[in-house]
């Protein structure tokens, strides 16, 4: 037990590097704050575009959604950060991470919102049109509010996954929480900073995970 505490719960090592961990936490939060709204808006735009049922456009949009969902986000980040400079587009690590995470998650959010929109009965759309509402007004005032409510549980679950995905930014040497913990470990020759980073993730995300579980149970009860 003493050996475990010395190697994984070493308070002296933690006190030496906690400013580095706090800096990494700030960057992780910033990544999540930037990428989450971008992914949501991008995905919502894809779902709304699909709702107009243009055959050619839908083939392209659904193909895009399937592609970005199937493409590993880690590979996407590497291609953006190391591949685009070969074409003359050099991006910072932060920009590359934001773009990779947003591209990947827009596909998931797009499919979530698309499923929510398609779950609304056609009768409600026809009723809105009979009241003289145009297509975009029917979508904005009738379809989207109901679709978003039905999609709340998978939406929250994917948001949680997005926050955890921010750790891939360590691959491009961006000093987010995981990268900072690894640097701290190298400075202290002790894995305690990695344990601290894991504990920070759990403390931050566990309440959100419990909320997602509640939403999923409520969604199952309403079926």
Automatic annotation (TrEMBL):
Keywords: Amino-acid transport, Cell membrane, Membrane, Transmembrane, Transmembrane helix, Transport. The chain crosses the membrane at residues 20-49, 61-84, 194-213. InterPro entries: AA_ABC_transptr_permease_3TM (IPR010065), ArtM/GltK/GlnP/TcyL/YhdX-like (IPR043429), MetI-like (IPR000515), MetI-like_sf (IPR035906). It is a multi-pass membrane protein. It is found in: Cell inner membrane; Cell membrane. The keyword Phosphoprotein does not apply. The keyword Ion transport does not apply. Residues 25-213 form the ABC transmembrane type-1 domain. Belongs to the binding-protein-dependent transport system permease family. HisMQ subfamily. Part of the binding-protein-dependent transport system for glutamine; probably responsible for the translocation of the substrate across the membrane. This is Polar amino acid ABC transporter permease. It comes from Methylobacterium indicum. The lineage of its organism: Bacteria, Pseudomonadati, Pseudomonadota, Alphaproteobacteria, Hyphomicrobiales.
């Amino acid at each position: 037990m003493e050996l475990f505490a010395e190697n994984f719960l070493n308070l002296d090592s933690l006190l030496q590097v906690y400013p580095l961990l706090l800096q990494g936490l700030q960057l992780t939060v910033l990544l999540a704050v930037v990428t989450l709204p971008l992914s949501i808006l991008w995905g919502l735009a894809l779902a709304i575009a699909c709702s107009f049922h243009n055959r050619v456009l839908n083939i392209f949009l659904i193909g895009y959604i399937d592609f970005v969902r199937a493409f590993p986000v880690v590979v996407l980040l590497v291609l953006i950060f190391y591949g685009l400079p070969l074409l003359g587009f050099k991006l910072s690590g932060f920009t590359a991470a934001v773009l990779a995470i947003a591209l990947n998650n827009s596909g998931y959010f797009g499919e979530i919102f698309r499923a929510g929109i398609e779950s609304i009965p056609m009768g409600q759309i026809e009723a809105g049109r009979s009241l003289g509402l145009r297509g975009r007004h029917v979508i904005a005032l009738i379809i989207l509010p109901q679709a978003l409510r039905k999609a709340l549980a998978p939406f929250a679950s994917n948001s949680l996954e997005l926050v955890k995905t921010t750790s891939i930014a360590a691959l491009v040497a961006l000093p987010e929480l995981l990268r900072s913990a690894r640097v701290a470990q190298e400075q202290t020759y002790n894995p305690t900073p990695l344990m601290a980073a894991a504990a920070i993730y759990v403390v931050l995300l566990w309440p959100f995970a419990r909320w997602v579980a509640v939403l999923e149970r409520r969604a199952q009860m309403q079926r």
